[in-house]
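Hi R.,

As promised on Friday, here is the backbone we talked about, encoded as structure tokens. Could you run it through your design pipeline when you get a chance and send me back a sequence?
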């Protein structure tokens, strides 16, 4: 099956000669191109019982690599399972208008952080309102920067418990149908983002498609237009139970711009991949892109160094979280289990279906030998 690595290997050198990559894009590019190849080194796994021998190459462990997310995803989900409550969960999506995308792309560190903060501030404001909940809730948020055809489309998914702690320290259950009116949420979110952009305008960079907004008058004009535009805040149907939340988190938290499973073919400098069209009843379709355009779109979603794409707020914020969650569990009738460290070997065994370091055929312990040059 074709992979992103194959596209980078075949057409990457030409692309890099024609385009200038940022430092983070270059690092991600090199990591994906060499992942699980002899270039990164490795060893030979030899079975002393049946004589089976195969090379085992090192992974790049880059967070943008389609091959390297499974273990990290499973580990992260297992760690988060201790924080789930026996309540419903809301799912909200906060999206910026396409007109602001050039500014966001030029200022990813600042603008993505603004997107996170404003999305949570909107959730927190409505949750604190007695008309909707009147309690302190929490959220697990995940940043995605891509659309289904790899276009640049920054948005934040937020998973919110359907309830929260009141000032009196009791649990208040929220509606299982919806969190708050999306039109009201979109107006509040819009106001918070635009006010934040005005505050940080002096530290923003403007180049490429964003260069036309470098002038203060042009920037203010854009902000004014954005105030008159309807923003998209979408509240999806609530999850049925905590198990559904875990399944969702497992799919979304460590997702990269495109998985290898979606790529159909690479031929005559064209890449064909599958996507689901939300405007046509989620029908599966095929998108065809020039290899250069595919690489360009993929690299648009490489995040700044050290940027946290998953964040926790309110009840789920790191400081004092265990005490708050244990209290919420007692109030909601959720079993309070002892927190234990994640076992990496157990995770690997679930992933590969056998004990790590054993032969796939006879289950005998493997011997690791140097690679033969």
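Update: got your reply. Pasting your designed sequence below so it's all in one thread:
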């Amino acid at each position: 099956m074709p992979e992103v690595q194959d596209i980078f290997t075949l057409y990457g050198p030409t692309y890099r000669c024609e385009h200038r990559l940022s430092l983070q894009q270059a690092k991600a590019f090199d990591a994906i191109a060499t992942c699980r190849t002899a270039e990164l080194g490795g060893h030979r796994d030899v079975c002393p019982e049946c004589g089976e021998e195969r090379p085992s190459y090192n992974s790049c462990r880059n967070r943008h690599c389609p091959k390297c997310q499974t273990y990290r995803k499973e580990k992260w989900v297992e760690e988060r399972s201790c924080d789930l409550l026996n309540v419903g969960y809301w799912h909200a999506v906060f999206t910026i208008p396409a007109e602001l995308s050039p500014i966001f792309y030029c200022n990813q560190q600042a603008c993505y952080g603004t997107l996170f903060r404003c999305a949570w501030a909107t959730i927190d404001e409505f949750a604190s309102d007695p008309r909707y909940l009147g309690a302190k809730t929490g959220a697990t948020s995940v940043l995605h920067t891509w659309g289904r055809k790899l276009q640049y489309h920054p948005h934040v998914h937020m998973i919110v418990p359907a309830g929260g702690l009141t000032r009196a320290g009791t649990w208040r259950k929220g509606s299982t149908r919806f969190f708050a009116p999306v039109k009201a949420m979109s107006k509040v979110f819009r106001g918070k983002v635009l006010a934040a952009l005005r505050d940080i305008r002096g530290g923003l960079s403007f180049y490429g498609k964003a260069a036309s907004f470098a002038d203060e008058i042009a920037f203010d004009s854009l902000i004014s237009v954005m105030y008159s535009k309807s923003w998209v805040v979408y509240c999806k149907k609530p999850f049925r139970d905590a198990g559904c939340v875990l399944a969702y988190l497992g799919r979304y938290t460590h997702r990269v711009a495109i998985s290898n499973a979606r790529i159909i073919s690479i031929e005559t400098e064209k890449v064909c991949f599958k996507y689901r069209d939300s405007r046509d009843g989620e029908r599966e379709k095929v998108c065809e892109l020039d290899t250069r355009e595919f690489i360009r779109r993929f690299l648009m979603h490489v995040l700044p160094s050290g940027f946290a794409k998953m964040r926790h707020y309110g009840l789920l914020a790191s400081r004092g979280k265990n005490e708050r969650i244990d209290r919420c569990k007692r109030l909601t009738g959720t079993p309070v289990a002892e927190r234990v460290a994640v076992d990496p070997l157990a995770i690997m065994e679930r992933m590969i279906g056998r004990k790590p370091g054993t032969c796939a055929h006879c289950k005998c312990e493997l011997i690791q030998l140097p690679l033969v040059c």
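One thing I noticed while checking it: The chain has a mean pLDDT of 91.

Thanks again,
M.
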